[in-house]
Structure formats: structure tokens, C-alpha cells
Write a structure and sequence with these properties.
The complex is a heterodimer of chains A (about 475) and B (about 575). Chain A is of the alpha/beta class and about 475 residues long. Chain A has 15 helices and 21 strands. Chain A has three domains: about 70 residues, Beta Barrel (Thrombin, subunit H), CATH 2.40.10; about 280 residues, Rossmann fold, CATH 3.40.50.12240; about 90 residues, Bovine Mitochondrial F1-ATPase, ATP Synthase Beta Chain, Chain D, domain3 (Orthogonal Bundle), CATH 1.10.1140. The longest helix of chain B is centred in the last third of the chain and has 25 residues. The chains are: A alpha/beta (about 475), B alpha+beta (about 575). Chain B: Belongs to the ATPase alpha/beta chains family.
Chain lengths: ~475, ~575
């Protein structure tokens, strides 16, 4: 059924149009052989009884009207085996680490099927990332998709690496073996620079994480269209490892902005009606088909947790890429330019950050009884302190009341002591929460209106607020 | 989704082209909006355009590997839903296929394609208790019998609206399946417990009336400031992370409707799972039964096919209308209507239609209006009264309310709950902005609140609004000169407004007690703050410095009323303490 054609009629950007006399399936894989014997792979974007539109992954350079087109009669598949762990693959899934060919146990179409919402299990197992700003304030749970909203020049990679390195599920660590608590890491790079890629690879090798990782590399100089398949290969692998082989998988995708640029490029080449800022109208659906491939399934051991990274063009979170992402993912972590220039590591701005699954993943029996209250109280106090900073710039600190000054001090200490911890420090949850209490104890007890009274009695650190009380009296 | 029987399938056509969810076919004899089966796998689709010999179809399932030349079959009938006992406690996809049945049929947690299933169980037997006897005259929509469907809800079996009606000649009683005839009429019409209705047409009703009863939500800011009526319409727009979904869930959990239809349109899978796991365990505050007993879920998550996302809103409102015909008050939540509008845009752009504003099709406003118009408080044909309240979440890109979906929605709905990212950031939940939001039902609902809760309900609310308005103005000054530069009475107003925000407007959806606040408690909390206000201003007039007034240690206890189960005694004691402490100062 592998019929060959030499009927290319049009080549435009990443697209090739060819006439056919037999029906070709939508989404099918195509091989195009150029005059000098090189083979390019592509995918059918539109199929009619007379012609097909093909999106070529590796660029259309060198393709001419005499090139031959071969339809393989199947949609794109990922070769899957547990032996993928430890391997480095290209953006189209071919080994590039010099290792042996992949001998698959199974092949699966990379356009994953949607998980039946009825079959899902609600994610509520706390993941300890060792980062206070995340664990304490925006808790990550297994099966969640929590993107990092960053921008050019910010250390989002360091944060992602820190999470990949430190992420564990605490309870299981105390059990008989800690095999279950370690994550298999799937790393999908889309259009990042060689240097950035090296940073990740070095860290993986240094910490030995490579053994439990699968790396997909599409670098900045690789064809842009290839980027549209890289995350799908990565997620198909993740689903296989999670739901067939019982791994807990952490998928890091970077940089989603490059992925969306590639979508726009294809859309423009097809002369589609563009949506906002030239991105295709179906970008929401397309992104959802990636992000929604995170989760847990009832009756299965494993889980897929996603941390996509995206750089916001112009630090603007109303740009379509972060905007659509935020509507699909279960929260977001903001990396902040101001905090970064203050030297806070990791520079996480907790105010706009959010973890939607936090409320069900924390509290008594899951983390600690006081977790939710502390987090709420610190949010409120930090937000108030932040607000006052604007005012201080105008009227100066002296003009503010004792209470306001206290909030300002809190905001400073919150950034310097709670958020700031360094990319190499691993704080466990107890430490994070106790640190929270230490900071909150700056306030007199009556100010802690979001914390249960019994919890205040139990955890309040006496003496911390002494000076203020004296000052008031 | 109702299944076509073999005999319905008519002329065959052939696929001409495939591009994502849009397929064209030639030689297909089909009417506009007919349901068709596409390809060898029989993927379900709907006719959306006919031009000459070419029929354009939107397909509700993934179209990978479908190729030109494959057959297309028309069922000759428009997209319809199955209506009958068995819809409550169910969870459907956008074309009313039960997701639990799909899981079983596909044998996998992933949604395969080409599998169909009826919307209600055709084999299960239900206990039919007739309400008519031989010789009675019945007309369209008349209730002929009752089926105890769940502990909360009696399902009323009605004569289908498109029947002529006549004299009853035979009535059954006892256990039957939904396809067995239970009542027979003299003109030969046979009535079963099962009927079908095309989703895109409104079910007929006698008259739409002005709603005068509130849909009590148990949320202080909604009941207290921006109430919605039973049969009303509301929009909840807000940027991501501002709490649209939590607000929708709170309404689905606590609103005093008889039936809740919850449509998850293009949203997160895990959120639907949360509803599926939570609702069976939660108690309906009015009946004490499981919440799921009154709930019908429609889940078309963001990664499920886009065409089914377009239809899920219609599936939901048709089911809602069916229960309305039985005389129930139905609340329909649609989360989110923006995803629905985007699905329309996606299909429209694949059809290469001329785009309107921001690429949305020109008929966007008409479709939105059509949907919200299906809500209302109705006098039904069978003499009962029922209502459908429609509450739609809107997800404006970048949180910008000037975009087409928000603007076109605002032109239709009468209640607007504006969610605010700033409030959400400081964890003020529900993050409903009290300056921007409005409810046009206030006046028509006030008599109900005055009769059922407190005589001065409207007056006290106006006081709260005034204080909050004044705070907004004062805050602008404070931003410039600082709080201490204000005169003492204004400082006190700010303090009172702070309690209004913290003790009254804020509500913890995750706290066992605070999550639901009956109108009486809403009134009492506001009353306590007003007591503080009145006493404090008297103290100020008597010459007590404002610092001393705001320093009394009883006042912060206001913030704890929300979490008290025995709030009556707590409020009484607190009011006494505040009064006493303030009077001691002078």
C-alpha cells in the first residue's frame, strides 16, 4: 500500500501539496525523497480525493517537483520500551546518543486519546519539591500540570532542574523501599539553545538523573515544524511509562513558546484565518491536547505530572501563549524579574502564582494540619505588605502606622528568608512551615485572622513580636 | 445520544476531503443538522453546510487516518438527546454518551472512537406509578405517571410535546423498561418513559413569567449583594485563577434548585473528576440526600473533540428544559461559554466563513442570545411552573472584559459577577468585585427576602453598599497621603469597610461550615458589623479617639462568625461584647 507519487504541485514554507489518485488518510505519515536521495518525513494536514497537503517536519529545502512522495498508510507512532530510560533522542524520536537502535515492545500513535474523565483519579498526593515558595504556598501534587511562567533572561531552567532533582513524595520515602518515590523524568526540549540544553544534560549527568530520564532534543537550529511532534512523543512515552510500567513520571517541556511559534508558522503557511496575534484559532484545543495528558487513572499505579516552561514575550501574561496555558493548566508559577535582580533564588513571585490542586493535596493526614491556614495568612500578609510598598515610595515609612510598618517588614523578610533559599537547598515541608510560623509570629495573635485559634496556640512562636507590642504600649 | 435504528439509515455518500474535525462528503442525501456516521468506523458527525452536491460535516470524534472515499451514512434525524429516567447521577460527554458506559465498552481509560451508547439505560426497569386512569383526556406534556428516580427526585413521565394527545385507553403500573409502552391513547399514540428531543430546538412552554423568587446560593456576596432569580441568567467572567470554577462548583453544590445540570465545556479533566468524586459524598442542604441525586453532569474536557464541545451546551440546556417541564427549578451551570464560542470559531474558520470580531463568526451574538433565552421562569403547557436558571462562566483572554464573548454575554444576562485577579491574588475569595458586579433582579427579589428573612433586608444592604462605595473613594486618597492623614470618622469608615470585606464578603469555600451560609446568617453577620458601626460612631462622637475604638478586642471576632455552626448565640454575645467594650470607653 506504499504507493509512490511524483506529483508535487506546490511547495510553500513547511507545506507540500501533491496530487493523488488513491485516498490518503488524514494525519498519515509521509516520506518525501529529494533529488539527492535524502528522506524527509511529514504528516498529512488535509486530504481530499484529488490532492493532499503535507506538513514536512525537517524543512522543505531541497524538495522539488520531481521529488517522490510515499504514503506509509499509518499515523505517526512512537516506539516504546522501558529501555528508553537513560536515552537521548532527537525531536522526532531517533536516538542521537550513539547508543543502539530502539527495540520497541510496543508502538503507539502519538496523538494520544483523551483520558475519560470518569476514569481519572483526582490528584491529591503531595509532591515535596524542597522549594518553600512552591511547597508552602503553591503545592504541587502528583498528576498535576503546573507551568512555569517565565521570561527571557530569567533562571527558569534552574528552577525546573531543582524541582526535577528534589521532587519526592515524602510518605513513601519512609516506607520499606523508596523506589516508588523517585520520579522518572521526561525532558522535552523544543527550540532551546545548545547551551541551555547542555545545562540540563550536565545536571542530569552530574546527579545521575539521566538513568531515569528520557530526553527529547529539538534545538533552536532544528526545523521548527519538528517541534510540533516533540511534545507528543514525550507525552506518549510518559503515558506508556506511567500507565503500563507504573512509573511516576515528571514531564518537563521547554520552551512552549517555541512550540506555539511553530504552530503559527504552519497556520500562516496554510493561509488560515488567524486568531489573536496571528496564532491559529485552534491553539487552545491544540495546547489542551498536550497539557491534558497529565493525570492519574483509577486502578493504575503510575502518574504523569507536567511542568511546562514558557517564556512570556515582553513579560506579558495576557499574551495568548501564557493566557491560553493558564486556562488549561492547574495553576502557574511566576518567575519574577524584580526578585531575580534582588538576587532571590528561586525568584518565585507567589502572589500571581497559584496551584489549583493545592487545597485537596494538603492538610491533616496529607501534609500538616496548619498548612492551608499558614499559606492563606502569608498570602494575605504579603499582599498587604506589597501594596504598602507603593505608598511608602510616596509618603515614606514614618508616615505609616505601626501596623503598616509591621506588614512592610513582613514582606521584606518573606522574600529574604522564605522565598530565598538558593537553587541547591532542599527544604523539607516541616522546615518550610516552621519558617512560615516564625515569620507570622512577627504579628500579634489577633492579626492572624485566617488561622484557626487552636493552631495559633500550638505553633505561635512567642517573643517574635515582642518589640512591636512594647512599641505600641 | 439517541441511536438511530438500522432502518433510519438512508442514502450513502462518500468522503471527499478531511481536514481535522471538518469532513466534506459527496452524494449524501441529508438535511441540515442531520446526524451522520462517517467512515468505516462510523464516527458521529453533524451536517453543518450543504452546497450543491457537497455536504460539510463536523465530526464529534478524532479523524486521524480517515481518508477520502470512505462511506458516510445519514440517520435522517437531527442531533437529539434521550430523555427519561436515568439521567440524574449520570455523567455524559458532549453528545450525551454516558462516560461510564464508554469506559466499559472501550475497556480502557482512554476515549476510543466509533463507540456509541444511548443516553439512558434502555434495559433497566423503573417503577412506573400512573397518574392517569382509563378514560382521562391527556394533551402534550401532561404528566401521566411518576417514577421514583432518586431519593430526591420523582421523575414525571410526560406525553411527548409533539404528540397530539387524546383519551387514555390503556394504563400499565409496575416495573417497566423505558421502551415499554406504559400508556396508550385512543388515537394509537403509545407513551413510553423515553422520549427524544432535538438539542437545537427549544422545548415548548406556555408563557415566560417575571421571576420573583431568588435562587439562594448560600454565598454571602451573591445572596447579599447580587442575587440571581430562579429562572434568571448570570455571567461569571474572570481571568484564569480568579475562581470561576470554584464559584460554579459552589453554586452547583449549594444553590436551592431541585435539579442541577453541570456542563463542563472545554475545561480541565481533573476538575470534572473532582465533581464526580465529591458530589456523591456531599449532602444536599435542602433534602439531606446525596448531591449527585439531583445532578446531571456533562463533561467535554478541553482535549475532547472540538465539535462535541460546540454541542454540549445544547445537550445541557435541553436536559434542563425537560426537567423544567416536570415543574422543577433547574439550575444550569456552563463552564465555560468562552470555550463553546471558541469551538464555534474553530469550526467556522475551517469552513472559511467570513470572520466577525476577533475571528469569531458573525452569528456569535445570536447564538449566545439564543442560549440564554432558553432560560427563564415558565408556565408550562401541562399547567406546572418550572424554571431554568442559566449561569455561564466566561474566560476572557487576558482578563479583558471588552472582548466579544464577554460583551455579547453582558448584553443578555441580568446578573454579572465580575471576578477580579487582584482580589484573587490577595486571596480574597470569592474574588467577586463588588464595584463592577451587578444584579438587575435586586428589586424584584427584595420582597421575598423581606418576607422570608428580615424586613429591613434591602435597607441594610444599601448601608453596606454605601460603606463599600465610600471606602473605594477613600482608598484613592489613602494611596496618596496615607491612612493617618484622614479625618477620624473616615478612618473609622475604612475600618468598618475592612470588616465588611473580611467578615462578610469573604467566604471560605473549603471550610466545612463557612462553605454554605444561609440568608439568615448572611443577614446576621451584616447586622453585627452594623452594630459595631453604630456603636463606634457614637463613641467617636462622644470624643473617644479612633485608635481606642478600633482597638477593642471583641471586633476581630467578627471574622470568625462565618465558621461558627451555632452562629446565633455567637453573634448575640459578640454584639453585646462590642457594645459593652465601646461604651466603656466613654
Amino acid at each position: 500500500m506504499q504507493k509512490e507519487y511524483q506529483t508535487i504541485t506546490e511547495i510553500s514554507g513547511p507545506l507540500v501539496f501533491a496530487e493523488v489518485d488513491e485516498p490518503v488518510g488524514y494525519d498519515e505519515i509521509v516520506e518525501i525523497e529529494t533529488g539527492d536521495g535524502e528522506t524527509r518525513r511529514g504528516q498529512v494536514l488535509e486530504s481530499t480525493s484529488e490532492f493532499v497537503a503535507i506538513q514536512v517536519f525537517e524543512g522543505t529545502e531541497g524538495i522539488d517537483r520531481n521529488s517522490s512522495v510515499r504514503f506509509l498508510g499509518e499515523t505517526m507512532q512512537m516506539k516504546l520500551t522501558e529501555d528508553l530510560l537513560g536515552r537521548v533522542l532527537s525531536g522526532t524520536g531517533e536516538p542521537i546518543d550513539g547508543g543502539p537502535e530502539i527495540e520497541p515492545d510496543e508502538e503507539r500513535p502519538i496523538v494520544g486519546e483523551a483520558i475519560n474523565p470518569y476514569s481519572r483519579e483526582y490528584p491529591e498526593e503531595f509532591i515535596q519539591t524542597g522549594v518553600s515558595a512552591i511547597d508552602g504556598m503553591n503545592t504541587l501534587v502528583r498528576g498535576q500540570k503546573l507551568p512555569i511562567f517565565s521570561a527571557s533572561g530569567l533562571p527558569h531552567s534552574d528552577l525546573a532542574l531543582q524541582i526535577a532533582r528534589q521532587a519526592t513524595v515524602p510518605e513513601e520515602e519512609e516506607g520499606d523501599d523508596d523506589e516508588g518515590s523517585e520520579f522518572a523524568v521526561i525532558f522535552g526540549a523544543m527550540g532551546i539553545t545548545q547551551e541551555e540544553a547542555n545545562e540540563f544534560m550536565d545536571d542530569f549527568e552530574r546527579t545521575g538523573a539521566l538513568e531515569r530520564s528520557v530526553v527529547f532534543m529539538n534545538l533552536a537550529d532544528d526545523p521548527a515544524v519538528e517541534r510540533t511532534v516533540t511534545p507528543r512523543l514525550a507525552l506518549t512515552t510518559a503515558e506508556y511509562l506511567a500507565f503500563e510500567k507504573d512509573y511516576h513520571v515528571l514531564v518537563i517541556l521547554t520552551d512552549m513558546t517555541n512550540y506555539c511559534e511553530a504552530l503559527r508558522e504552519i497556520g500562516a503557511a496554510r493561509e488560515e484565518v488567524p486568531g489573536r496575534r496571528g496564532y491559529p484559532g485552534y491553539m487552545y484545543t491544540d495546547l489542551a491536547q498536550l497539557y491534558e495528558r497529565a493525570g492519574r487513572i483509577e486502578g493504575k499505579e503510575g502518574s504523569v505530572t507536567q511542568i511546562p516552561i514558557l517564556t512570556m514575550p515582553g513579560d506579558d501574561d495576557t499574551h495568548p501563549i501564557p493566557d491560553l496555558t493558564g486556562y488549561i493548566t492547574e495553576g502557574q508559577i511566576y518567575v519574577d524579574r524584580d526578585l531575580n535582580s534582588q538576587g532571590v533564588e528561586p525568584p518565585v513571585n507567589v502572589l500571581p502564582s497559584l496551584s489549583r490542586l493545592m487545597d485537596d493535596g494538603i492538610g491533616e493526614g496529607l501534609t500538616r494540619e496548619d498548612h492551608g491556614d499558614i499559606s492563606n495568612q502569608m498570602y494575605a500578609a504579603y499582599a498587604e505588605g506589597e501594596d504598602l510598598r507603593d505608598l511608602v515610595n510616596i509618603v515614606g515609612r514614618e508616615a505609616l502606622s505601626e501596623r503598616d510598618n509591621l506588614y512592610l517588614d513582613f514582606a521584606d523578610r518573606f522574600e529574604e528568608e522564605f522565598v530565598q533559599q538558593g537553587f541547591q537547598t532542599n527544604r523539607d515541608l516541616e522546615e518550610t512551615l516552621d519558617l512560615g510560623w516564625e515569620l507570622l509570629s512577627m504579628f500579634p495573635k489577633e492579626e492572624l485572622n485566617r488561622v484557626d485559634e487552636d493552631l495559633i496556640e500550638e505553633h505561635y512562636v512567642e517573643g517574635e513580636s515582642a518589640e512591636t507590642v512594647e512599641a505600641e504600649e | 445520544m439517541s441511536q438511530a435504528t438500522e432502518s433510519d439509515v438512508r442514502e450513502d455518500g462518500q468522503i471527499e476531503s478531511v481536514s481535522g474535525p471538518v469532513v466534506t462528503a459527496v452524494d449524501l442525501d441529508a438535511k441540515m443538522n442531520d446526524v451522520v456516521y462517517v467512515g468505516h468506523e462510523g464516527l458521529m458527525g453533524e451536517v453543518i453546510e450543504i452546497e450543491g452536491n457537497i455536504t460539510t460535516i463536523q465530526v464529534y470524534e478524532e479523524t486521524s487516518a480517515v481518508s477520502p472515499g470512505e462511506p458516510v451514512e445519514s440517520t435522517g434525524a437531527p442531533l437529539s438527546v434521550d430523555l427519561g429516567p436515568g439521567m440524574l447521577d449520570a455523567i455524559y460527554d458532549g453528545v450525551q454518551r454516558p462516560l461510564d458506559v464508554l469506559e466499559e465498552k472501550m475497556g480502557s481509560a482512554f476515549l476510543d472512537r466509533g463507540v456509541d451508547a444511548p443516553g439512558i439505560d434502555l434495559e433497566k426497569t423503573w417503577e412506573f406509578n400512573p397518574e392517569v386512569a382509563e378514560g382521562d383526556e391527556v394533551g402534550p406534556n401532561d404528566i401521566v405517571g411518576i417514577v421514583p428516580e432518586t431519593p430526591s427526585i420523582d421523575h414525571k413521565v410526560m406525553v411527548p410535546p409533539d404528540y397530539e394527545g387524546g383519551e387514555v385507553v390503556d394504563v400499565q403500573s409496575g416495573d417497566y423498561t423505558v421502551e415499554d409502552t406504559v400508556v396508550e391513547l385512543d388515537n394509537g399514540e403509545e407513551i413510553t418513559m423515553h422520549q427524544e428531543w432535538p438539542v437545537r430546538s427549544q422545548r415548548p412552554a406556555d408563557e415566560k413569567q417575571t421571576p420573583t423568587t431568588p435562587l439562594v446560593s448560600g454565598q454571602r456576596i451573591l445572596d447579599g449583594l447580587f442575587p440571581i432569580a430562579k429562572g434568571g441568567t448570570a455571567a461569571i467572567p474572570g481571568p484564569f485563577g480568579s475562581g470561576k470554577t470554584v464559584t460554579q462548583h459552589q453554586l452547583a453544590k449549594w444553590a436551592d434548585a431541585d435539579i442541577v445540570v453541570y456542563v463542563g465545556c472545554g475545561e480541565r479533566g481533573n476538575e470534572m473528576t473532582e465533581v464526580i468524586e465529591d458530589f456523591p459524598e456531599l449532602e444536599d442542604p435542602t433534602t439531606g440526600n446525596a448531591l449527585m441525586d439531583r445532578t446531571c453532569l456533562i463533561a467535554n474536557t478541553s482535549n475532547m473533540p472540538v465539535a462535541a464541545r460546540e454541542s454540549c451546551i445544547y445537550t445541557g440546556i435541553t436536559i434542563a428544559e425537560y426537567f423544567r417541564d416536570m415543574g422543577y427549578d433547574v439550575a444550569l451551570m456552563a463552564d465555560s461559554t468562552s470555550r463553546w464560542a471558541e469551538a464555534m470559531r474553530e469550526i467556522s474558520s475551517r469552513l472559511e466563513e467570513m470572520p466577525g470580531e476577533e475571528g469569531y463568526p458573525a452569528y456569535l451574538a445570536a447564538r449566545l442570545a439564543e442560549f440564554y433565552e432558553r432560560a427563564g421562569y415558565f408556565q408550562n403547557i401541562n399547567g406546572t411552573e418550572g424554571s431554568v436558571s442559566a449561569i455561564g462562566a466566561v474566560s476572557p483572554p487576558g482578563g479583558d472584559f471588552s472582548e466579544p464573548v464577554t460583551q455579547n454575554t453582558l448584553r443578555i444576562v441580568k446578573t454579572f459577577w465580575a471576578l477580579d485577579a487582584d482580589l484573587a491574588e490577595r486571596r480574597h475569595f470569592p474574588a467577586i468585585n463588588w464595584n463592577e458586579s451587578y444584579s438587575l433582579y435586586r428589586d424584584q427579589l427584595d420582597p421575598w427576602f423581606e418576607d422570608n428573612v428580615a424586613g429591613d433586608w434591602a435597607e441594610q444592604r444599601q448601608w453596606a453598599i454605601d460603606v463599600l462605595d465610600e471606602e473605594t473613594e477613600l482608598q484613592e486618597i489613602v494611596q496618596l497621603v496615607g491612612k493617618d492623614a484622614l479625618p477620624e470618622d473616615q478612618q473609622l469608615t475604612l475600618e468598618i469597610a475592612r470588616y465588611l470585606r473580611e467578615a462578610w464578603l469573604q467566604q471560605d469555600a473549603f471550610h466545612d461550615t463557612d462553605t454554605f451560609c444561609e440568608p439568615e446568617k448572611t443577614y446576621a453577620i451584616l447586622g453585627a458589623i452594623k452594630t459595631l458601626n453604630d456603636e463606634a460612631f457614637e463613641a467617636l462622637e462622644a470624643g473617644v479617639p479612633v485608635e481606642e475604638i478600633t482597638d477593642i478586642d471583641a471586633a476581630p471576632r467578627l471574622n470568625r462568625i462565618g465558621v461558627q455552626e451555632e452562629w446565633e448565640a455567637y453573634v448575640e454575645e459578640l454584639e453585646d461584647d462590642m457594645t459593652e467594650q465601646l461604651r466603656e470607653l466613654y
